Task: structure prediction
Amino acid sequence: SSNESTHMEKTLAMIKPDGVFGNYTDRIKNAILGSGFSIFKEMIVQLDEDSAATFYAEHSSKSFYSSLVKYMTSGPVLVMILEKENAITDWRALIGPTDTHKAKITHPHSIRAMCGLDSEKNCVHGSDSTQSAQREISFFFKDMFAGGVATEHDEL
Ligand code: RTP
Ligand code: MG
Result:
C-alpha cells in the first residue's frame, strides 16, 4: 500500500534528569506531538553508572565523560521511541545544538533553548544516525529488533 512506501523511521529520544526534575516533561511531549512525531513506546529509567557509561561509550575518551555519567545517573530519565518520517534528523533538529547557550542564540525555538542549562545539562538526547538509533532503541527496549542489533547490545 502507499502507506508502506513512506519511510517511517524510529529514533530514541530521552528527557535527561535535569529535564525531568525541571518539570519539562509535558512541554517536551507537547513539542514532540506538535511536530508530528508519535510516541511509540516510553519508559522511565534510573540509569546506573554502568548503563550510563555504556550508553555514552563513544565518549569514553572525552574529558567530560565522567561528569556526563554522573549527570546521567543523577535522577530518572524518560526514554521514548519516536516515530515519524525522517524521525532521526527531525528530532535532532527539534532539540537543537548540544550547548544550551549556543542553542538559545542560534535555535531559540529548540527544546534545548527552552529547558537546557549549559553545555552538559541540555535536558534531552537524540540518536544521531540510523545505526545509533537501532543501538539505542535496543539498549532500552531489547525486543524491538530481532537478531543482530540485540546481540550487539549484549556484547557491550
Ligand atoms: P546527545 O548524544 O545527548 O543527544 O547529545 P549530542 O549528540 O548533542 O552531543 P554529544 O557530543 O553526543 O555529547 C553527549 C552529551 O555529553 C554532554 N557534553 N558535555 N561539557 C562538555 O563540553 C560536554 N560536551 C558534551 C552533553 O550532555 C551532551 O549532550
Ligand atoms: Mg550524541
